[in-house]
Structure formats: structure tokens, C-alpha cells
Design goal:
alpha+beta, 4 helices, four-stranded antiparallel sheet
Length: 240
């Protein structure tokens, strides 16, 4: 014989009371979640920024390999900074590597691949000389600058325009910087007067620097941001 167990209204009332949260309990839970979010969000932001710095470093190391590929192709000769008609060191190296092969504007920044620092959100061409830095939009032209001056000669024996066998201190010689112009507009005189006027320092006020041996340093070198770069000569010159 089946028996139906009936609960009194008193019992069901207690059960109903036990299934819910009070307003105070909900407010405590919301406060804890908000506190956790406020703690975690900056950490997540820092992690994302670190990953972009590492990606930029990887870009520059690959550009360094591109320099070596170019030199291997042209009997040890590194590319010159500029060869006229929109042909910069970047377009020369890109042509050897076959990465982007764009000597004009791109509609999608992802097409630029290693030529775009992930912190540069407005770039639309590969290391070009459009001169938009004069209007504060140099980052549209490039993310990186080479260590060299201009023209088809090495001028003062900087990295670009030199030959591989000229380089005496590859671990100390800079080959590329982060900048908003394809060249850094330095003068041709002594290292004490070198200036990287168009430096970019997008990684927590620091910048990546590529060296001739393909290692990358993330630093805040005084001269690259404060006007005059007072480095010892191997930083600038291949023959020192």
C-alpha cells in the first residue's frame, strides 16, 4: 500500500528558506569577485605586453637572419640603407626573404609579418621612406630602423653598407632599432653626436635593439631617447 507523505507548511517553509542566498551573501560574493578581477587584470595586461615584446624580439632576430641571407647572396655585402626609388634596406632584405614582397601600402597589418612590431597598430608599409614622420605618423611607414646613414656607400662604416668580414665586434655593434623612420637621421660625425630622433619605446618605455650577432636587448639606452647617444664606438661602427 502506497503511502503519501505530506509535509506541513512549516516544514516546506524552512526548506524554501534554505535554498536561497540573502542579499548580504550576494553582495559579499560580488565584492570578492570584483576584488579578484582588480588583482588579475593588471597581471593579465602585463603578460600580454610581455608577449608582444617577445614577439617583437622574434621579428628583429628574423630580420637579423635576413641581413645574413642578404650578405650570403651578395658576397658578404650587407644592404645599404637606401638605394633610391623607394628601395630601402627593409625592401632589399624582404625581397631576399620573400616574406611580404610589398613595396606599397597594405590593407591588412598582418600582411607585414616580421616587419610590424605588435605594439605598432597603424603601420601600413614595409620600412618605407614616405616621410610621414614629419607629421607625427612615422609609425605608418615602419616599426624598425637600420644602423646606417644613407646612399650607396657605407659613409662611416656603420652596420648597413659594410661587409660581414669588416665587423670586429658583432656582439656590440647595433644593426637595427625600433623607430618611426627607416633610418635614424644620425649625423655622420663622431658617436658622441649620434641621435636616434625617431626612436620608438613602446615596451613599457623600453625599446628592442638588434645586434650584429642577432641577439636582441630590451633596454632604455639614454642616448636613444634623450637626444645624444653616447655609446662607445663598437655600438655604431663595424670597424671598431
Amino acid at each position: 500500500m502506497n503511502k503519501t507523505i505530506k509535509h506541513s507548511s512549516y516544514q516546506t517553509g524552512i526548506y524554501a528558506k534554505c535554498t536561497g542566498f540573502t542579499l548580504i551573501e550576494l553582495l559579499v560574493v560580488i565584492s570578492i569577485i570584483s576584488l579578484l578581477i582588480s588583482i588579475l587584470l593588471p597581471a593579465l595586461g602585463n603578460a600580454r605586453a610581455s608577449s608582444r615584446t617577445i614577439m617583437c624580439q622574434s621579428n628583429m632576430r628574423q630580420i637579423g637572419q635576413g641581413f645574413i641571407m642578404y650578405a650570403d647572396t651578395y658576397e658578404g655585402q650587407l644592404p645599404f640603407m637606401w638605394q633610391g626609388a623607394g628601395i630601402t634596406w627593409g625592401t632589399l632584405v624582404d625581397d631576399i626573404m620573400g616574406i611580404c614582397r610589398k613595396n606599397s601600402f597594405v590593407s591588412d597589418r598582418s600582411q607585414l609579418k616580421i616587419w610590424n612590431c605588435p605594439e605598432n597598430l597603424i603601420q601600413d608599409s614595409v620600412c618605407q621612406e614616405w616621410g610621414r614622420y614629419t607629421t607625427g605618423q612615422g609609425e605608418k611607414d615602419t616599426s624598425y630602423s637600420g644602423n646606417g646613414y644613407n646612399g650607396r656607400t657605407s659613409y662611416d662604416n656603420q652596420y648597413l653598407g659594410s661587409k660581414i668580414d669588416q665587423i670586429k665586434s658583432p656582439s656590440q655593434l647595433a644593426s637595427a632599432f625600433e623607430a618611426s623612420y627607416y633610418r635614424y637621421l644620425a649625423t655622420q660625425d663622431s658617436p658622441s653626436n649620434k641621435s636616434l630622433y625617431n626612436a620608438r619605446n613602446p615596451h613599457n618605455e623600453k625599446s628592442n635593439i638588434l645586434f650584429a650577432d642577432s641577439h636582441v636587448v630590451t633596454d632604455r639606452p639614454r642616448g636613444l631617447y634623450a637626444g645624444v647617444a653616447r655609446f662607445k664606438k663598437p655600438f655604431w661602427y663595424a670597424t671598431w
